[in-house]
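> call design_seq(struct)
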């Protein structure tokens, strides 16, 4: 039961612990009530409006905050995204509505980079296939499941932001030749910059670290998959829609590429995806950025940023500071 005289923060991030005393103290000191509505599957805009209708703030996962949702939430002033991806939030509509959006920069980038390396190693060392073989009672040391190596291979890193550059640093320790492509980066220590087409043609492993935008949606299509070497592996820890999944399934089935390591999917969870049937794919449930430590940090940063916005204070995680303008905030209050 929430107090109608107090502000309400609705939490949809499933990693949030309602019993966490640290978060509880922060909310109580701020005089803000909390409602926990974890996102555990696809959520429609109508469902989202229903659970957020009385909220002043949200600590949110990948809920679909599009224009139609934001226009129906006149009380909402802050959205704290647990992560750095903003493809689930219409940032322009949020800004127009005076809803301040924050992200948790620095909380998970190194963890995602670790997971990208884990998928690479699992794929090239054929860990999942060999594990299944062992459980069948087999002992296949030099047969069809002989693994490949990461050391000395050429790895192409698409996107050289915080996560991509962390991957580059890790690959140097494996003695890899690292090439990269990013239109916003002019120099990267330990990484030779090439065009995107050159990267797909040369790399033994292609690893994706780009946000989902109109420019990157479908970036890895049938044409780019065809450019890859038959011995190549694709790793995706960014967003599922960066890859044309139908084209990827075809490439994996036909042997056009050797394998893939995937943490993200076009539809999550990917219950009906043909990718689940392929032995040469290593899969994980969109948890590249999640560890017990990073979940605590994500939660703490999101709570602090949401409460800062409600107080009207600046915060380094704010991505649309123009939403803080006095005019927009005044218009927001007038809707109540």
């Amino acid at each position: 039961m929430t107090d109608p005289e107090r502000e309400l923060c609705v939490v949809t991030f499933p990693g949030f612990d309602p019993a966490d005393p640290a978060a509880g103290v922060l909310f109580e000191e701020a005089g803000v009530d909390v409602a926990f509505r974890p996102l555990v599957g696809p959520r429609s805009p109508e469902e989202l409006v229903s659970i957020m209708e009385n909220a002043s703030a949200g600590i949110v996962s990948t809920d679909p905050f599009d224009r139609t949702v934001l226009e129906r939430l006149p009380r909402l002033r802050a959205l704290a995204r647990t992560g750095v991806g903003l493809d689930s939030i219409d940032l322009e509509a949020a800004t127009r509505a005076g809803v301040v959006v924050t992200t948790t920069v620095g909380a998970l980038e190194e963890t995602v980079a670790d997971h990208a390396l884990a998928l690479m190693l699992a794929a090239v060392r054929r860990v999942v296939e060999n594990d299944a073989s062992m459980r069948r009672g087999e002992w296949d040391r030099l047969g069809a499941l002989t693994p490949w190596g990461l050391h000395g291979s050429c790895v192409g890193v698409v996107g050289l932001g915080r996560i991509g550059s962390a991957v580059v640093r890790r690959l140097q320790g494996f003695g890899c030749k690292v090439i990269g492509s990013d239109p916003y980066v002019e120099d990267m220590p330990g990484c030779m910059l090439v065009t995107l087409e050159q990267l797909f043609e040369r790399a033994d492993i292609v690893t994706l670290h780009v946000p989902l935008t109109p420019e990157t949606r479908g970036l890895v299509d049938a044409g780019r998959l065809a450019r890859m070497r038959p011995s190549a592996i694709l790793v995706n820890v960014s967003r599922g829609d960066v890859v044309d999944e139908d084209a990827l399934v075809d490439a994996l089935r036909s042997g056009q590429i050797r394998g893939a390591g995937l943490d993200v999917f076009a539809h999550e969870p990917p219950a009906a995806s043909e990718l689940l049937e392929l032995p040469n794919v290593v899969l994980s449930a969109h948890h590249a950025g999640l560890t017990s430590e990073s979940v605590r940090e994500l939660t703490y940063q999101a709570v602090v940023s949401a409460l800062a916005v409600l107080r009207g204070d600046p915060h380094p995680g704010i991505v649309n500071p123009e939403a803080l303008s006095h005019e927009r905030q005044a218009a927001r209050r007038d809707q109540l």
